[in-house]
Each structure stands twice: as structure tokens, then as C-alpha cells.
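Researcher: Next entry in the queue.
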Amino acid sequence: MKGALHRRGSVGAASLGLLGLMGLIGIAHSSQWEPDLDSEPHRYFQRTAVDRFSRRIPELAEGRLPLARSSERAFLKSLLAALDIPESSQLLVFSNTSLQLSLINPGNPRALYFSDDLYLGYVPGGKIEVATIDAQLGAVFYIFDIPRSDSRVVVERARRCMNCHANEDTLQVPGLSLKSVAPGPGGGSLDTFHPGQSGHSQPLAERFGGWYVTGTGGFDKHWGNRMGRLYQGELSATPLEPGTQFSFARYPVATSDLLAHLLHEHQVGGINRLIRAQYRFRELRHQNQGALPKNLPPDLETELADLLSYLLFAQEASLPRSGVPGDPAFREAFARNRKSIGGNSLKDLDLQTRLLRFRCSYLVHTPFFDGLDRDLRRRILQDLDRALEPATQRSLSAEKTNAASRHLSDEEAAVIRTILRATVQGFPNGNLKTD
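Model: Structure for this entry, 435 residues:
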């Protein structure tokens, strides 16, 4: 398999950072803005995170969570259950990345597990890594040893993660770093696909490099399950079947499911965009004595337009012609907290030509979204409402947002609007009740 990569010369052992896992972030910066994390409006390292994992750290440290201690695998399984993260979300990466890169290789892949707002990494023989999404701070990173017998769990907030989690790959804000690489035989990366980009718009043929992928239904036009080789300037790849160089028995489940990869990739692209908007609004407030300026900077307006398009899957890459089967256990876990109206939900899967039946991101149902700056959240909801208006009712003010929804039929847009009105507090004219 040949790969057309973004050429920046040969790269060494690429450090993708904590949870530097798959995929690719898909926003071209409309400005060079980046925050000073130590400045007064942000104070990233000084402020205490209040997300659901951070609030439970005392329980973990004091042994009040029901966690098994008989083996690494048993501890991991019980921790995932305690944090309500499905085992079936497991993704396996073998390019030697993260703070524990020396432990990671095709024979000892690193596992990632995720829910809508929490990400947990595990390397056999290594530590547990957690990335959680806090409404004010963005991504916050923790690391701790797997306890032996009755030893105490000591959770450390990992400052070193910011070397890779507040740069171009995360839109310059504390976010989730995802890359697809051409992994070299020595464990490093021969090159990186679409550096600084990720999300559901990236070509499938250049995704998943450095990852194991299962549940593909025969689809193999991607860089997963491959080892790269550079010879006389030409990049090629050889197959690397999941489970041949390692035992799935070391992990909770025997999957690294394609559907889980695709949904995880969507979440990262959306979360990083939302975090960036949150930081920009907070900084504007600080510069204007707590109020927002009457007119937002043009480059921020451009980013908000990109965010709207992303939430509505405007540039989503098409799925394989055969569709995506999706691991049944993961499909069930993904739908567990679905919010619906009339039987329809933003978590309803399509999996034939696209991920979701109703193309609007379910991230609007997360605590992180609810905790956004009040005016930012209101602006996003207003933009969604205008973008989803039928053409016959559309006002002149809606034309600017219409480009984000041209790919939606009137019927699909109407269902999405109905779901949002019923399930998202503060959505314009929301007055319906959920099922």
C-alpha cells in the first residue's frame, strides 16, 4: 500500500503526547491567536478542575472505589466500570507515543477507552493515564501507578502532557492530541498524515496509522494494521494483523473497533474546537471588563462558522461502500445515554454512508457543553437554530449559517431541530418534552 504523506522530511520517534492517539484535527487556523495558559483569565495550572473525574480523585486515592487488585487487567476493568467508561470502546495503538513511549510497540500496544467526556489510557506494565474534559480548563491530564496489593493510589496532575497537548494539534489550547502516522519498524514514525488536523472530514485512506483496527467488514483502504517502510524515498506498508504479535487476553476485550475509532475521532475534533472557542470568549471578556465586545473579531467569527459546520458534519468523509458493521457491544454502550424525542436521537447511527442518522453532534448533550461560557453556548445554539430553518422560513440573518447545513435535507434538518428543542436547555423555542 502506498501512502501520500505531508512531507516534512523524515521524523524521528514522534511523541504524540498523553492520549496522542489516532486521527487528525481538521481546522485550518483562521488566526495565529493562542492563549497564555498562565495569564489571569485562564490560570490553567492554578485552577482546580471540577469535571466528574477530578471530583472523584479523593475517592480513588482513599480507596473508596470498589477496585480489584488481583491483576493489572482486573484493576483496569473495575476502574472502567467505576468511571462508567465502556470496555468495548477499546482502541489499540502500537506507535510508541505518549509519556510511556518506551513500553509501546506492536507486541505491547497501548489501549485507550473513552466515553463522551472521559478518556483513559493503559499500557501493560505501565501506568494509567486519564484525560478529562473540564468546562473551564479544557482537557486536564492525570497519571498514576496501578496499585499493588493494598498500596495507595497517588493521582498526579501531569504537567508534562502540555508539551503535546497545547500546540497545533490541539488548536493551541489544552485539548486532545490525535495523529495518524506511518509507523517505522524501529518504533518511531516515518511521517505524519495531515499534521495539525483531525476530525471526521479527513480521508479514510490516511487515517488510523499506528493503530490496530478490527471490525472493518473487509474495508482495508486505510493505514491501520500496517507497518511503514521507507525505501529510496518511497513509502510503502506491510500488513500487521491484530493479535498476531500480542495477546488480546491482556486486555478487557478483543477489539479495536472501527466504529469506536470513527466516533472517537469525531469527538476529538469537536471538543478541541469547543475548547478553543471557550478560551477565546474568556479572554475577550477579560479584556473588556467582563463583557463581550459588540462585534466579535472577524477571525473568531470564521472559527465559529467552522465550529457550526463541524457540529453539523458538513464535510464528513463518506464511509466505505460496504458500510461499517460496528461492534454490537460498543453500539449498545454508545446508545446507553441517548436523549430522544419521538424515538429519534442524535446518537442514532446510520453507518451506511455516514456515521449518524441525524447529522448533529451529540456533544451538545455533554456536561462540558453545558458548562461553556453562557454567551458562547447561546451563540452556538442560535447558529444551529438558524442553520436548521426550512428555506421557506429562513431570515436574512440565517444566510450566513446556511452553508453549514446545505448537505441536510429539510426533513433531516427538521428532525434535528426538534430533538435539540426538546433535549438542550436554552435552545431557541425549546418547549417539548423528551421520551
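Model: The longest helix spans residues 258-287.
Researcher: Noted, moving on.
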